[in-house]
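Q: Sequence in, structure out?
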Amino acid sequence: MPRVTSARRRSGVLVVLFIMFALFVPGQALSAPLPKSVEQDLGVLLDLTLKRNAEVQPQSFQSLLEFVSQAKGDARDLIPARRYDANGTVLRVTMKTSLSRLMRYCYNPAIPNYLIFPSVLRLGGWYRGSDIVDKDPKPWLQLGKLDNPVALWGTEYEVNAPDSFGGGYYRYDLNRLIILTKLGGKNVLISVSKQKDKSSVGKKAVILDDGDWSYFYSGINGLNKGLIGWADTYMYDSASVQVFIEDGPHQTSFMLFKWLRAGWAGMNVVQKDHINEGATRYATAFKRIMESDRMPDPDEFALHVRELSTMSDAELERKIAAYSVAIENIAKTSPAMDKSEFQKVVEGGKYSRTMNREERLSAILVEYLKSRLGKNPLVEFPAMPSVRHRAG
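A: Exactly. Output:
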């Protein structure tokens, strides 16, 4: 693909600005700001991500916990204050699962986080030196002895799944803080993230079937969005605070506060409605997975993930070849894939050539997840006995 000259870039500025308003600025809905005390507590938690081993004082975020515990509805009409020059949103969800079970899936280093959040992540993992890897790989065991807060710091990497408004994917690092505490006798999990640096340059991707978590990753720099496909885009910054409160033996509510700044040439084009859309995709898949009676017990799930992750190169090659053919067949009927640059990537089953081993494993493991949840996987797996977990 030929590079765009500086002159062409300058001459396209007015077109870009027009497209920003035409494509990226959504309609405004009725909304309300967060209470000042809640905003202050969010700031305290975000600052703590950079203060490893600092003392965690529950009173410094008490207002936030009380606000979450009393909240009703889905909360998307709330507007958090701008942080890091980024717009933000809020989302609230209730799930039929205990906090301990939720943590056994989400915070088990043996289960990649993209298997719990397949609608928003392609890759993810913990770096060495993170407390959850080196210090406390089973943090859910702390839930029964929370006389004082437990805090774990670490660093993760992620590659996101394509969004619906730009079709880009990026790799970035996050500082992560996990806090376990109590509120009125209820177990509470707080998960805080703050992006470390600017992401890698965005690459073009396509949502093939969002409900089936099927996505195409081109490996081609740019944005999959019409006249601005040439743009070098980045995730400049992101942050999140998630508060999970165990309402009962088999129910957990959580509230997500999320900020995102992304675009090109230093410009942020992400609006609240875009973050709402991503947060809703995230929560919908997360809830479906956590509440599914088809999901294996977390320990069994982790065991099968380990087995698949250590398959031989020959076996992985067989599975990814079948996956590549399936993606090629989907591409033939997908209007979004009707581009010569995309067809060249998938034709003749060549899609697997764009992937390293980690990316291949990610694709296969998501198909394994789909097979366990009763979806139609693109790759066949040996029949496994269905394990119905105990409620919660």
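The domain at 24-294 is CATH 3.30.530.20 (Alpha-D-Glucose-1,6-Bisphosphate; Chain A, domain 4).
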